[in-house]
Write a structure and sequence with these properties.
By secondary structure, the protein is α/β, with parallel strands linked by helices. Helices cover 49% and strands 6% of the residues. It has 3 domains: 127 residues, HUPs (Rossmann fold); 121 residues, Serine Threonine Protein Phosphatase 5, Tetratricopeptide repeat (Alpha Horseshoe); 181 residues, DNA Cyclobutane Dipyrimidine Photolyase, subunit A, domain 3, CATH 1.10.579.10. α4 packs parallel to α5 and α11 runs antiparallel to α12. The structure holds flavin-adenine dinucleotide. The site of flavin-adenine dinucleotide has 27 residues, from α10, α12, α15 and α17.
């Protein structure tokens, strides 16, 4: 009769599976978001994501009010607060969208059993993926562990369904069932009330909320056809920059997949197919995490846990140099500066910096994974873990054994004119293109002309790639022995 929709990482009032099903099955529907102290308490006091969520909630609240409803916002431990709120409101069921992260699953299980004790139900729906869990399986009905066959099966299933899997949920059709604001509707807490300090999110000009997500999509669609050519060059506006919106559900994955499919029918559409492929990677990693939650702490390929990473004081110093953008390898440092200053890092650079941490510095991929988790606005356990394990070669990868990126040739190839490097390492701006990828090889006269003293204005390289490469080959030999 009465129900509650608990918003988590789906902060929009349209094309929303849980909201749609709640409205369809109930007479009266409340909406709530809990700032979960279990999550927030572990974060640094400056976190762009908390501000991103606040902005998204302000818009979600307004959108729900326009539809005749309201948003209840609380700051508490969600696992206790949701059952409490459900009983205050006297609802029969709580509706949510699936979350595939181990901690979220544990929380939802606890909430479901607390609700059950009080005679209520937790109903959960697929929303953030096109296909989830067991929906795409191999011919022998097993989960895939390699991307390309998964992708082919994914596309087959999508096409068999016509537009079924990308159709929006028509929330508006039942909007009159939203419970009207009443006295429970409270304003949003301030950032300070949540215990956080402001960041540079506004200064970055990052579009927030559902309107921000829509704006980024409209900005990207005219570029989608060229995505396959532009996506690898960090100085070029190639990708969509939608990842944070996907993370918090201020865009709908069905809308994105539908728009990509539409673009694929237009002439010059190669880019659209490549972009759809990236959305499929996202589903793939959700699926991997669902079937193998152990990857959150262990190598997907268990033999890679035999690798002995560098440890001790020297290793911690190297890690600090990586985090603080002072490895002496300009592309790596520019990438880390981008992450530290904006919370975003270009995909090519995520691969380069992750490869550098594991294969050049010999550090455990989990260190880098944890640093990204703390600093990425779009942090997603499944994709971040998948990306890191890919870089460490311990993940789902069809490549035999492993590859080692050369940080200098990556730089020459993907930032040939050093445009990206100059943007984030202005102290190197006056170096000629040829010297900017490896300043320690520059002629003294070049450095002098550019006003750079290595070791003073910019770091000397923390190691030599060729030597590191040899150490890595030796380090990884323990894997080969058991293969
Ligand atoms: P676009 O190029 O426009 O791609 C569109 C969307 O497709 C992205 O928003 C994302 O949802 C999805 N996507 C793209 N590439 C991948 C990929 N390789 N794996 C899974 N999904 C993908 N992505 C995250 O969303 N969160 C993370 O925490 C994250 N950590 C990463 C860590 C490493 C080491 C690596 C190598 C990759 C990681 N990625 C992560 C994937 C990818 O780098 C980002 O999704 C992408 O850079 C986001 O920018 P965009 O939205 O402009 O991407």
């Amino acid at each position: 009769d009465k129900s509650l929709v608990w918003f988590r990482r789906d902060l929009r009032a349209f094309d929303h599976a849980a909201l749609y099903h709640a409205l369809k099955q109930s007479r009266s529907v409340y909406c709530a978001f809990i700032f979960d102290t279990e999550i927030l308490d572990a974060l640094p006091r400056r976190d762009r994501r908390v501000e991103f969520i606040l902005a998204a909630l302000a818009e979600l609240g307004r959108d729900l009010e326009r539809l005749g409803g309201s948003l209840i916002v609380r700051h508490a431990a969600a696992a206790q607060e949701i059952p409490k709120l459900a009983s205050e409101l006297g609802v029969d069921a709580v509706f949510v969208n699936h979350d595939y992260e181990p901690q979220a699953i544990a929380r939802d299980t606890a909430v479901a059993s607390a609700l059950k004790e009080a005679g209520r139900r937790l109903l959960a729906f697929k929303d953030q993926a096109i296909f989830e869990k067991d929906e795409v399986l191999s011919q022998s009905a097993r989960p895939f562990s390699v991307f390309t066959p998964y992708k082919n099966a994914w596309l087959r299933k999508l096409h068999e369904g016509g537009d079924f899997f990308v159709k929006p949920y028509p929330v508006d059709a039942y909007a009159d069932r939203l419970a009207s604001p009443g006295r429970r509707a409270t304003g949003l807490p301030s950032l300070a009330a949540l215990g956080f300090e402001p960041t540079n999110l506004n200064a970055l000009g990052m579009p927030t909320g559902a309107s921000g997500g829509a704006k980024l999509l409209e900005d990207f669609l005219p570029r989608i056809g060229r995505y396959h050519e532009t996506r690898d060059f960090p100085a070029v506006k190639g990708p969509s920059y939608l990842s944070t919106h996907l993370r918090f559900g201020t865009v709908s994955i069905r809308t994105l997949a539908r728009r990509a499919l539409e673009a694929m029918h237009l002439p010059g559409s190669s880019g659209a197919a490549t972009w759809l492929s990236e959305l499929i990677w996202r589903d793939f990693y959700f699926m991997i995490l669902h079937h193998h939650p152990r990857v959150a702490t262990q190598a997907f390929k268990p033999e890679y846990d035999r690798i002995r990473w560098e440890d001790g004081e020297a290793a911690r110093e190297l890690f600090a140099a990586w985090c603080e953008a002072r490895t002496g390898y300009p592309l790596v440092d520019a990438a880390m500066a981008q992450l530290n200053q904006t919370g975003y890092m270009h995909n090519r650079l995520r691969m380069v910096t992750a490869s550098f941490l594991t294969k050049d510095l010999g550090l455990d991929w989990r260190w880098g994974e944890a640093y990204f988790a703390l600093h990425l606005n779009d942090f997603e356990l499944s994709s971040n873990n998948g990306g890191w394990q890919w870089a460490a070669s311990s993940g789902c990868d069809a490549q035999p054994y492993f590859r080692i990126f050369n940080p200098v040739t990556q730089s020459e190839k993907f930032d040939p004119e050093g445009k990206f490097i100059r943007r984030y390492l202005p102290q190197l701006a006056r170096l000629p293109n040829k010297a900017i990828h490896a300043p320690w090889l520059a002629k003294p006269a070049q450095l002098e002309a550019a006003g750079i003293a290595l070791g003073r204005d910019y770091a000397l390289p923390v190691m030599q790639h060729d030597e590191a490469r040899q150490r890595t080959l030796a380090r990884y030999a323990v894997v080969k022995k058991v293969q």
